[in-house]
Amino acid sequence: MRKRIAVIGGGIAGLAAAVRLRDLTPSGTEIVVFEGSPALGGKLHTGELGGRRVERGAESFLASGSDGAESAAVAFARRLGLGEALVHPAARPAALAIGGRLTPIPGGTLVGVPGDLSALDGVALPASGADVDRGRPLLAPGADVAVGELVRERYGDEVVDRLVDPMLGGVYAGRADRLSLRVTMPQLAATAETEHTLAGAVRAAQARSRRVPGRPVFAAVGDGMSRLVDAAASAAGARVVLGLPVRELSRTPAGRWKLIFGSAPSPGVDEVDAVVLAVPASPAARLLGDPAVGELAYASVALAAMALPAGATLPDLSGFLVPPGEGTLVKAATFFTTKWPHLAREPGPVVVRVSLGRAGEEDRLQLDDASLLAVARRELGELIGAELPAPVDSWVQRWGGGLPQYAPGHADRVARLRAGLPEGLALAGAAFDGVGIPACVASGERAADDVYRFLEGN
């Protein structure tokens, strides 16, 4: 009998699951993607600014993993026929904005955590004599702590505040003192179970990395991330239901899954044999009937993009990060047309994209778009030491509750949750397996594998 599978959530994790299911299942299998918003892609969306393509969400992804193999995102792009469309950023440095000046980010760190304290170039003053061998590994097997807790104890406050916090903030919009080491830095967590000093653990994690020297660290789709979304939707061959969120999910007496979707006055009903649930924590908790799932906190951020007149001068950098202690709403900036060579070769305005807001700063984002743009332009000018010309075009993109904040113990909580799931239901997405396109693609593909194994046995 022909099987029917529902993928609830049309972000990149859900789309990766749908494509994998199409590859694995017989040709007659029906796949239905339910997306509550009006469009697929989640936080992947390419916009237009001053005649240029500029991302309104994620702008790039890791090109390879720590094992040296190409990342799940690159492999996914190749599966979709987009291998030749991948582009890489220019080899330009990034900086930190500290004390009113831009200073190069020290090399050789692991997400800001140095393995050699002598290489900090004055950016941060490490605590003296704290990282000593105390006769035992830094972490017990399977233990988890906040990144900030471990690094402050061993290296002192300045290394966390000036290096680790802005690096983690650039990815998660969170604070090192609240983010799980095991989720955000799994390689370091693994070596901390055997090494007796933090410097030794960082060096061991770096030694284990098999990244190929000279290979680009990041990649993007040259025509924009929306092309990746469109190609995934096409490859999945799924029936797509947009703008009608799934409100209820329950098991039928026959062992199938019943979905109720759309508005309460006129709901739609569907039944499927298996489900991939690829939505954020709160809707996942509602559909699973488990409030604990929804306890994951999220940070809200905003992006302000400005198209400056052609010829506008910016520092010769790919961008910079801002430590929270600087007090600015701006936490990062990308000099878009400098960073991406394929855009620099095209005529048009100079584009800068600014990220605003960190976890716990939601109230500071409660400005209208014009006011938020004014803050972004003023603070950016102060941080680079030169007033910016008036932009010829601009936009603001808000991602309310957009970035999960993984507290210590997150991985164990997710493992327990998955162990208690009924057969035929799999979880995917950033709420469970980490932010970033490679993590979400891999999560969706694993969920599809789980569902396929269930269907094969039934």
Automatic annotation (TrEMBL):
It holds the Pfam family Amino_oxidase. Residues 12-451 form the Amine oxidase domain. InterPro entries: Amino_oxidase (IPR002937), FAD/NAD-bd_sf (IPR036188), Protoporphyrinogen_oxidase (IPR004572), Zeta_carotene_desat/Oxidored (IPR050464). Signal peptide: none annotated. Gene3D superfamilies: FAD/NAD(P)-binding domain, protoporphyrinogen ix oxidase, domain 3, Protoporphyrinogen oxidase, mitochondrial, domain 2. Coiled coil: none annotated. This is Coproporphyrinogen III oxidase.
